[in-house]
Specification:
The structure holds two protein chains of two kinds. Chain A is built from eleven helices and 14 strands. By secondary structure, chain A is of the alpha/beta class. Chain A has two domains: about 1-220, P-loop containing nucleotide triphosphate hydrolases (Rossmann fold, 3-Layer(aba) Sandwich), CATH 3.40.50.300; about 225-295, MTH889-like domain (Alpha-Beta Plaits), CATH 3.30.70. In chain A, strand 1 (about 1-10) and strand 2 form a beta hairpin. Helix content of chain B is about 80%, strand content about 0%. In chain B, helix 1 packs across helix 7 (about 95-115), helix 9 packs across helix 10 and helix 9 packs parallel to helix 13. Classes of the chains: A alpha/beta, B mainly alpha. The interface of A and B includes residues 10, 85, 88, 89 and 102 of A.
């Protein structure tokens, strides 16, 4: 659905996107991540045919974004960042205008506008001026606009930005339900959402591609350590004994909660599970354990690590790239 | 072409739901009223060569309204969309740049034509209440409104161009006003210092002197040179506008 090959975009003296390549298969939901200013919006604008690339080839739905721009725009539903809309139009009026621009007409257009208003939950607002809507509703009108012509590909630039938790859940369910008919490329900062919604994650930083894999693989293969939280009732220097276990990198005693319970956190090497060893140790030492909780690295940890690491892509282990 | 009409409908809608069209209409009606009254008092005081049409469009009031209209009508066309970011939504729909430029321009021309309807009504009304005593020559009427439309088309194209250059409506308005005024002043300048210049220069400048065109057309003379001049200049500025809008797509 999307084929990007060696895409580079330079603004006057500044490289926004630096030689990135990726593919998106039909039917995939792909999360497009990166810190602010990483080049996400630029890439999405190029994909939607709004601006040209400095170099590289970009094909969307089999069309070249520069030479076959109109065909690309017919097959893409694009929702820009900040959801710019005509504030002097009413919701239904605006969506009908957009639907007509995108080639729908007559009864089919009216029916489809009704459908997308229902889907995005703006039916009650259909007679309100867009200028008087809250941010969340504007966001949803923009989403309805992106959906209105049943595009093969949806490009959504921060669709959940400014929504409340209930609305975010609603958008997430909506995206999932679209999966069978549409391919979705969305950028967001809510990583929890990406973990739950996306089949694959593409992460860019400073204009370079840093990761392209499933969220599960990314978190699983992370270099960062897992955390193990423990609450133990025992005497003596527990921290030292715990630290001596193979695979434990570091032990810290957090605090005494209620005497005699003491709380520890263990940093454990990746791909190691020390829970059995901890249990064995506790049995041997006659400690009582009332809590043991393993905290796996999240996509957020991956994101932070990849964003903090400002080195070249060669610094990143090959399995992440 | 279908897309063009959809866009045109939307642009006209934008004009008439915003107060801009009504404010400009009110302004033009007031100034036209003054211009018309000035013309009547000229005819009242002494017998004169020109008809009421001639004197109306020679009044200072007419020129005052003339310069206000174009910046007010065109300043928001592109500048507002740039500022709001809606140009991005617009150009990620399957629309071509000429459709956008053409529809915005045509909408402004239509609104501009509507602005002159009250003035047309003034003439008809005076003819009616005076039972034909106030002579309104039909040739002068046709000439006057024809030149008004083509001069408007030219100045609106200039305004479109000015609006496409910036995201700030005020800047667009000042730019459009300045360009229109400079075009007008060339004619005035020659009229004032004409005697000191050679005849050939005066002749050349008269080709694009707005005051000269108004003088000829309100006398009922339809001069194709002026029509060709204004229409081709409109096309030139529209193609400039098109280039500015398309530039986004070509900028490497």
């Amino acid at each position: 659905m999307i084929d990007v090959l060696n895409l580079t975009k330079q603004y006057a003296g500044r490289t926004a996107v630096n030689n990135i390549s990726f593919h998106v298969e039909p039917g995939e939901i792909v999360g497009f991540l990166g810190p602010n200013g990483a080049g996400k919006s630029t890439t999405m604008r190029i994909l939607s045919g709004y601006m040209p690339a400095t170099s590289g080839q970009v094909q969307v739905a089999g069309f070249d974004v520069f030479h076959q721009s109109i065909s690309v725009r017919q097959s893409v539903g694009y929702m820009p960042e900040m959801a710019p809309l005509y504030t002097d139009m009413k919701v239904k009026e605006y969506l009908r205008f957009r639907a007509e621009l995108k080639g729908l007409s007559g009864l089919a257009m009216r029916r489809r506008v009704g459908e997308v208003m229902e889907l995005t939950g703006v039916t009650d607002m259909r007679k309100r001026l867009i200028g008087n809507l809250s941010k969340g509703y504007r966001q949803r009108v923009a989403l309805a606009d992106a959906l209105v012509h049943k595009p093969k590909l949806l490009i959504l630039d921060e669709p959940t930005n400014g929504l409340d938790p209930v609305q975010i859940r609603h958008v997430r369910d909506l995206l999932r339900s679209l999966k069978t008919k549409h391919t979705v490329l969305l950028s967001t900062h809510i990583l929890h959402e990406v973990e739950q919604t996306c089949d694959r994650v593409i992460m860019i930083h400073q204009g370079r591609l840093r990761a392209n894999d499933t969220p599960q693989n990314l978190t699983h293969q992370m270099r960062s350590t897992t955390l193990l939280h423990l609450e133990i009732d025992g005497q003596g220097n527990l921290a030292e004994k715990l630290a001596a276990l193979p695979g434990v990198r570091k032990t810290t005693e957090e605090k005494v909660i209620v005497h005699p319970w003491r709380r520890f956190s263990l940093r454990v090497e990746p791909d190691q599970d020390v829970r059995d060893a901890v249990m064995d140790l506790a049995m041997k030492q006659k400690w009582r354990i009332r809590e043991m909780h393993r905290q796996l690295p999240t996509l957020e940890d991956v994101f932070v690590e990849l964003s903090m690491n400002a080195g070249t892509p060669t610094d990143i282990p090959t399995h992440v790239l | 072409m279908r897309i063009f009409w959809i866009l045109l409908k939307k642009e006209l809608h934008a004009f008439f739901v915003s107060p801009v069209a009504y404010v400009v209409l009110a302004l033009v009606m007031v100034l036209n009223g003054f211009a018309f009254r000035a013309a009547l008092s000229v005819l009242e005081s002494a017998p004169s060569e020109g008809s009421i049409v001639t004197w109306t469009f020679h009044a200072m009031w007419f020129w005052l309204s003339y310069f206000f209209i174009f910046p007010l009508l065109t300043m928001r066309l592109f500048a507002e969309e740039k500022k709001m970011g809606t140009l991005e939504t617009l150009f990620t729909a399957p629309v071509r740049a000429w459709q956008v430029v053409g529809s915005k321009y045509l909408a402004s021309v239509i609104v501009y034509c509507v602005l002159w309807l009250p003035s047309l009504f003034n003439f008809k009304f005076s003819q009616w209440i005076s039972a034909g005593q106030v002579e309104v020559p039909s040739g002068a009427m046709q000439g006057a409104f024809l030149i008004l439309v083509v001069m408007g088309m030219f100045n609106l194209a200039v305004g479109c161009f000015a609006s496409s250059l910036t995201a700030n409506q005020i800047v667009a308005a000042i730019l459009s006003f300045t360009l229109s005024l400079m075009h007008f002043l060339v004619g005035i300048f020659v009229m004032v210092v004409g005697r000191k210049l050679s005849d050939s220069i005066v002749d050349v400048v008269n080709y694009f002197a707005a005051t000269e065109h108004i003088r000829i057309f309100t006398a009922g003379l339809i001069d194709s040179r002026a029509l060709v001049y204004y229409l081709s200049m409109s096309l030139l500025f529209l193609s400039f506008t098109h280039h500015v809008v398309e530039f986004r797509r070509w900028r490497p």
